[in-house]
Amino acid sequence: MTASALAMMIATWTVVLGFTITTFVAVVRRKPNESPPRDSAER
Amino acid sequence: MSSGESWRSRVGLVLAMAGNAVGLGNFLRFPTLAAQNGGGAFLVPYLVSFVLMGIPLLYVEWAIGRHGGAFGHHSAPGQMDRLGNRAWLKYLGAFGVFTNLAVAAFYVYIESWALSCAFHSVVGTFSRRAPGEFRASYLGLDRDALAVFPVEAAFWYVLTLGINVAVLGRGLTGGIERVARIGMPLLLGCAVLLAIRGLTLGPGDPGVVESPLRGLNFVWEPHASGLLDPTTWLAAAGQIFFTLSVGMGSIQCYASYVKRDEDIALGASAAGWMNEAVEVVLGGSIVIPIATAYLGLEATRAMASGVDGYSLGFASLPSLFSNMGALAPVAGLLWFALLFFAGVTSSLAMGQPVMAFLQDEMGVSRGKSAAAFCAATLLLGAVCVALYPGGAFGEFDFWTGTFVLVLFALGESIAFGWVFGIERGWAEITRGAEMRVPRFFRFVIRWVTPAFIAVIFLGSLVQPAVGWGAAFDSLAAGDGWPLAPGSVLGRLLHVGASDASWFDATTGAPTRVLVEDATRLLLLLVFVATCWLVRIAWKRKAAA
Lengths: 43, 544
What we know:
By secondary structure, chain A is mainly α. Chain A has one helix at residues 3-29. The longest helix of chain A is centred in the middle third of the chain and has 27 residues, at 3-29. The N and C termini of chain A lie far apart (58 Å). The relative contact order of chain B is 0.17. In chain B, helix 2 (24-36) runs antiparallel to helix 12 (230-244), helix 6 (95-122) packs across helix 19 and helix 15 (287-295) packs across helix 16 (297-306). The longest helix of chain B has 39 residues, at 392-430. Chain B has helices spanning 10-21, 24-36, 43-69, 76-81, 88-93, 95-122, 125-128, 131-139, 151-169, 172-199, 212-220, 230-244, 250-255, 264-282, 287-295, 297-306, 309-321, 328-362, 366-386, 392-430, 440-461, 468-476, 488-492, 512-543. Chain B has 24 helices and no strands. Chain B is mainly α. Classes of the chains: A mainly alpha (43), B mainly alpha (544).
């Protein structure tokens, strides 16, 4: 691979995988929401 | 009733949302588009479109969905109606039911190809018969007719639709969430295995003529000229629409089952970025590198510019797998299982809004709504299957899978930022958010996203057959605007067709143009019928 293609690929993969892992880990780690489920009275 | 349901877990919700977005386009459409539009340079407008249009639209759709869900609306007509006191909002929302139904009709057909090809890979059909020839016969393209009845294709279609309806009938957590939790890891596993095998093909492997890394280079080599070409920007922004499944009404539907103070900003970001990772990292590492390894770069380059992703994935790749000898059935099974899981997690997201509309707004039970979705999809799907050679499938794909998405997204972004109001909208997006949503998105959602979509819409309307500069030169010289056959107006006017008549002048037989126009009329009637159902539902509610 050429240096420019490799640099483009690594830069894009880093950004995309970085955001993906960060956000998904945050979803997994977050404690369950303690607000009660919606019911008809709330509406 | 659907209103009593909610997601069992956040991970299940994010996987279902990501499964909705991750579809066949991630593996088939993205690599060919990137290769055709400047290689690595395509990624610049692509990522800019993702940040300025994709992420804001995800926030908007999740917010519309959760807001509407709090009032018991799990489909777009009711959700849009709750954004303001305007009668037209619910009819704008009708797009969110119509699109899902119409897209499901042809999308289930593609899914059924994957299922049948997985079967034929295992039983060794592709070692005896060229996949391209098999595909032509399977679809009825080998018969000189506009309408066909391909028995095997019809069988797999009905089976695939049956699987979808069976899952949908089991409800949100028992059906959709469970399939997403199983299907997404399987999909990722199949994709990783194929990418590793493809990228490690070497000179010692039978049939390999070139390093697959040259194919990877082809996808990623940045050509700066692509950055200045509006066509590249249009293609990149269009791909963001397809890949994220925005403008359909399915994200709003899934988000409506989220609890009131759930962090939707984080959920939307996680699902969106997961889709991007699958597309950019895995989607770009399978089809083009494998094709390059077995066909050589020049042949792959010609193939990528001359065919659509579907032909590449369903006809070309199986024949390349045959080079793998004893591993060919395994590679074929992995590839088609991957496509099937990618497809089914998306088509389930199309069924749920239609069923939710019938349940919430028309008072129909879950079982009956599943049966109604099945019957309607089957009827529309029959048109796609029987008239595939006549071009009906392509019409469904373009008008409902492309055009309407942009139209609906434009309407909902204006409704959210301007009718609902950015103050309330921003409060809805950030309520319950532990993640700090950059305030820059507030400005983007109100101004940039609608303008961005409007430019895409206008651009696709009049996209020229030549470069934009040459087209303006042609207009200035008084030679008119050279419409591309694939532009919206070009399609409407049948630009490029040798004869735009409905019947052949000599034989009197129906032409492809008749099939295309009849399909458009059918789709228009389905949309009008959806609006009519919305009207009835609201009249009944007003009278109750």
